[in-house]
Amino acid sequence: MERAERIDGLIRKGNVVLPESTRYGADVRLRNGRIAEIGEALPCLEGETVMEAEGAWVFPGFLDLHVHGGDGAGVSDGDPRSLARMCAFHARHGTTGLLLTTSTLPDERLTEALEAAQAYASSEDGSMGAEALGVHLEGPFLSEAYRGAQNPEWLQAPCVEKARRWMKASGDRIRLVTLAPELPGAQEVITFFREKGAVVSAGHSGADYDGMEQALRKGVTHSTHFYNGMPGFHHRQPGIAASVWLNDEVSAELILDLQHVHPAAAQVLLRCKGLNRVCLITDAVHTAGLPDGEYWQASGRKLTVREGTVRLESGELAGSLLTMDRAVRHAVQVLGLAPHEAARLASLTPAEIIGEERERGSLSPGKRADLVLLDANYDVLLTLREGVPVYRKSD
């Protein structure tokens, strides 16, 4: 696949979704891969391209901090070609940047997956599709009791030496780490990753309220796929849920596929945390985008895709088939959020969580021209990465 030409010009008369509101019938000028200007009836300058967008939504490109795969390819394959395929798939659904998310694997295979992520990010293929912004290391430092679809055979206690080895294998690209903070050795690993600049998240964890409070004091600032892979709230055992709800500095991920989390529970999270501390994620696995049928995990276990869900033979959910455009649609049409509020969850908040908000996450002059055009039903028409089309509906 050849890299498309960068667009320098106007996106005209779109419904431009800004951080605090939507400007209807506005123009966006793109120049040298950046947003140069936003306004009404901007003049077309000599040599500029004009793209008519009347009636379309113009969103900032979506950022997915937790995504394992798509279109039959995944991070656990340990193959840069698989990463190119999954990034192209998610670009078709409006994602312009993502964290390549691992799952629990044997040590050698996890190392291979991280080396493949490093190779892909520095390759020419890495300039196409959604941009690999780094790695989200999910596993193997997880609780067996709350492992979800993670393979229990390969779970292990947190170990600084292995954390150091895997950080090196990734080329220092690990930017987010999910672990169970109650496990022995977790504190040393939290400290290591924090010193390396990574965000540390509590996930697949059975920590109680006091344990989670202690973890927050020692460097945990995020919660992986909130409500999933953790104990439920109980008024005498409030657990992780209450700790995250009550601590303003902690952010939380939300899988808004309407399968993992009931809309009412999603509303509770948003009421407690606010839009600036919740990010939409997909948790998509390699079967996202594939037809109903039976498939195999990289771990060797069978998955069944049916009617919008993917499950293990036990019936447990095994990741999701979600894409970010569908998550945004659900935020607007099911939760009743305004478009700019949905954009907050899908773009700006995740950018802030990993420290990318200066460059991406909102439509503002000077930022990268990472945009997605959606039709009235929130289906993707065009995805731009630094002004370069990485997906057109007609492609």
TrEMBL record:
Organism field: Paenibacillus aurantius
Gene: nagA
Single annotated GO MF: N-acetylglucosamine-6-phosphate deacetylase activity
Signal peptide: none
Pathway(s): Amino-sugar metabolism; N-acetylneuraminate degradation; D-fructose 6-phosphate from N-acetylneuraminate: step 4/5
Species classification: Bacteria, Bacillati, Bacillota, Bacilli, Bacillales
Active site: 283
Binding-site list for substrate: 149, 228-229, 236, 260, 317-319
Keywords annotated in UniProt: Carbohydrate metabolism, Hydrolase, Metal-binding
Binding site for Zn(2+): 138, 204, 225
Family the UniProt entry places it in: Belongs to the metallo-dependent hydrolases superfamily. NagA family.
Cofactor note: Binds 1 divalent metal cation per subunit.
EC id: 3.5.1.25
This protein's name: N-acetylglucosamine-6-phosphate deacetylase
Cofactor: a divalent metal cation
Enzyme class: hydrolase
Domain Amidohydrolase-related: 57-376
Reaction(s) the record says it catalyses: N-acetyl-D-glucosamine 6-phosphate + H2O = D-glucosamine 6-phosphate + acetate
